[in-house]
Specification:
flat; mainly alpha; 7 helices
Length: about 150
C-alpha cells in the first residue's frame, strides 16, 4: 500500500518503519470481537429503555418524528421499530444520514458568514439506534476491557 509518508517525508524512514512494525504487532495481538452481546439482535427491552432516556421537547429532522412520538408508541410499533433496527444491524445499513443544518448567528455583522455557527438536527430514530449501539459498546468496554497504560479515558 502506498502511504502518504512515502512521498511526503514528515518523519524519517527508520522512525516510520518502527511505527509500522508496532502497528502491525498491535494488529496481530488483537483478537476479533466475538462477544454475543455485541452481535445479538436488538431486543424490545433495549428499545424501550433507550426511549425512556429520551429528552422531550427536542426538534425533529426531515422525517418529522420527534421524541414525543417515540415515547408514545404502542407495543406493535415498538416491535416494528425493533425489527427495523435489527434489519439495519444485519445489513450494516444506517439510513438516517440526512440532517437539517441551520446557520445560527453568534455575534457581529450578519453579513459575515464567519459570525455564524451551524446547528445540525438529525433524525431522532437514528439517534435512538445509535444510542442502543453505544450502550452496548460501553457495557462491553466496562465488563471486558481493562485500561492499559497507553489508554486515555
Amino acid at each position: 500500500a502506498n502511504l502518504y509518508s512515502d512521498t511526503h517525508t514528515t518523519i524519517d524512514s527508520s522512525r516510520k518503519a518502527k511505527l509500522l512494525e508496532e502497528a502491525n504487532q498491535l494488529n496481530e495481538d488483537s483478537h476479533p470481537v466475538t462477544d454475543s452481546n455485541l452481535n445479538a439482535a436488538i431486543s424490545l427491552h433495549e428499545v424501550i429503555n433507550a426511549i425512556k432516556s429520551l429528552k422531550l421537547g427536542k426538534a425533529s429532522s426531515s422525517d418529522l418524528i420527534n421524541n414525543e412520538i417515540l415515547s408514545s408508541l404502542d407495543l406493535s410499533n415498538l416491535n416494528f421499530l425493533t425489527d427495523l433496527f435489527n434489519l439495519c444491524l444485519d445489513n450494516g445499513c444506517y439510513p438516517w444520514n440526512t440532517s437539517i443544518i441551520t446557520p445560527l448567528h453568534k455575534k457581529g455583522c450578519k453579513d459575515n458568514p464567519d459570525n455564524y455557527r451551524a446547528v445540525a438536527v438529525s433524525s431522532v430514530v437514528g439517534k435512538l439506534f445509535s444510542t442502543i449501539l453505544l450502550d452496548r459498546l460501553i457495557t462491553y468496554r466496562r465488563e471486558k476491557c481493562t485500561n492499559t497504560t497507553k489508554q486515555l479515558g
